[in-house]
Amino acid sequence: MCADTPEHHEPQTPRVGPLPEGEWDDALKAVVANTGPLNVFTTIGRHRELFQSWIGFGSMLLYKGTIPARDRELAILRTAHRRSCAYEWTHHRRIGLEAGLTEAEVAATRLGLDDHAWSEDDLAVLTAADELDELGTVTDGTWAALAGRFGENQLIELVILIGHYHMVAFALNALRVQVEDGH
Known about the structure:
It comes from Actinomadura fibrosa. Residues 49-130 form the Carboxymuconolactone decarboxylase-like domain. Residues 1-21 are annotated as: Disordered. The protein is mostly helical. The chain has two domains: 6-63, no CATH class; 69-175, AhpD-like (Up-down Bundle), CATH 1.20.1290.10. Helices cover 62% and strands 0% of the residues. It starts with 25 loop residues before the first helix and ends in an 8-residue tail after the last helix. 32% of the residues are buried.
């Protein structure tokens, strides 16, 4: 279930279950060939046209974006925490570690921003995620901190990235997409 701390919540029945393998179209088969049969894909894949558009956009942000992977994963993990999405959290925890985050840093994305000794660069990314969640925008101070290290395209991408993962968390939570066994 999508919830901030999976071990503290009872699993709920998915509202929309994963599409059975025999019903996968070529687009879903291609994604699953690269990722495995993740419930996020096999559930959203029920809406074929939406899935095809969404997967291209999400893949661009995840695999072809201009933001360093470590920063991207900080933003995603903080968003998953803020949106209480265990599915997003579980999968991006692993990706974050692969991107260079430490176990302590991953865990600290669930804490108050003052509860970990973040670098100024990390703090700016995390603060942007918090502000977008709380305010629907980024304050001038946070924008200035981000603009000190990111170019214009990266600034646009960061805001879009955080918004995208909010949307994904909303869908995962509302559809009650389950974390796969073994994750």
